[in-house]
Amino acid sequence: MDIPQDLKTVEWRDGRVVMIDQTRLPGELVFVEYETYGQVADAIRNLVIRGAPAIGVAGAFGLALAASRSTAGTVDSLMADLCTARDELLGTRPTAVNLKWGLERALAAAEKCTDADSMRRAVVDESLAMAEEDVKTNKEMGKNGSGLIGDGETVMTHCNAGALATVSYGTALGVIRATREAGKNIRVIATETRPVQQGSRLTAFELMHDGIDVRLIPDTAVGYSMAQGLVDKVVVGADRILGTGHVYNKIGTYQVAAMAARHGIPFYVAAPLSTFDLDSGPEDVVIEQRKAAEVTGIGDSMTAPDGVGVINPAFDVTPPELISGIITEKGVAAPPFKESIRALFG
């Protein structure tokens, strides 16, 4: 498969939102185009696009479609249309905070305008600015994290926090990319990340494309790999980070962190400041529950008895005491996290 080096997960092109259909990877690279915010909402809900930073920008682009397609002639009527679109987009993935951040930032740009046409331009321009900033942010984060990885070390990662989870470059995989760009030899162990297998389908795909040594393991082999001395560091992404240092990420992250603590392996989280939620406590966060079919079958093939009950949370929470550091574009926060996170935000 011929893949451009400057590949973008999501972008604004000729008044449409264009994104990679990640449900089709790694078998084929397919780009899909959307003309309405409802289509973008469905894409986020159905994991055509996923990853906290990526859906933050996608949500903003969805709002840009709502603005550009609206026939409203006044500020008030256009704002009403934008709020309707915001509510639908926001309801697609309740745990990842970047989605709310992207929508609110685009809406705030519209609120500064005094006429409908300038509002439309402002939402599009702000969304484009977010997409450009995402790449710069990821590269800064990568540089900040690369100093934590030694030459010749093996890094374990969970789920996909790479270019496909952002506009480009990646968060956790951005740290891995920056480490190699710094001239260090690095190896990666990627978990398959059941039930949707973002690790085997996406992370392994990205790293192999970049020529980075990657080995794939079943989720159940995390403890084995660590006990065998195969892992030096763990770096994962995040969908929401609280001011307390609690990290919400793909289901299974907590287990990886707990096993890393058991074996004395540093566990790092890489995420931009837009992933932080300083207003909520652990009791406020809604964990998204996904459909049973993701667990009971693969494609059209059933792998479980018909009618079996299913618990299928999309995310779990890793407590701060299991985390060695949180890598951001502004630096690395270290325990105690309440103080270090507050310092990141000035």
UniProtKB/TrEMBL annotation:
InterPro entries: IF-2B-related, IF-M1Pi, IF_2B-like_C, Initiation_fac_2B_a/b/d, M1Pi_N, NagB/RpiA_transferase-like
Site for Transition state stabilizer, residues: C159
Active site per database record: D239 (proton donor)
Domain of life: Archaea
Gene Ontology biological process terms from the UniProt entry: L-methionine salvage from methylthioadenosine
UniProt EC number: 5.3.1.23
Signal peptide (UniProt feature, chain positions): none
Coiled coil: none
Residue sites binding substrate per the record: R50, G51, A52, R93, Q198, N249, K250
Reaction catalysis annotation: 5-(methylsulfanyl)-alpha-D-ribose 1-phosphate = 5-(methylsulfanyl)-D-ribulose 1-phosphate
Keywords for this protein: Amino-acid biosynthesis, Initiation factor, Isomerase, Methionine biosynthesis, Protein biosynthesis
Keyword Protein biosynthesis: yes
Single GO term (MF): S-methyl-5-thioribose-1-phosphate isomerase activity
Keyword Protein biosynthesis: yes
Entry's family note: Belongs to the EIF-2B alpha/beta/delta subunits family. MtnA subfamily.
Free-text function comment from the UniProt entry: Catalyzes the interconversion of methylthioribose-1-phosphate (MTR-1-P) into methylthioribulose-1-phosphate (MTRu-1-P).
Name assigned to this protein: Putative methylthioribose-1-phosphate isomerase
Organism: Cenarchaeum symbiosum (strain A)
Organism lineage: Archaea, Nitrososphaerota, Candidatus Cenarchaeales, Candidatus Cenarchaeaceae, Candidatus Cenarchaeum
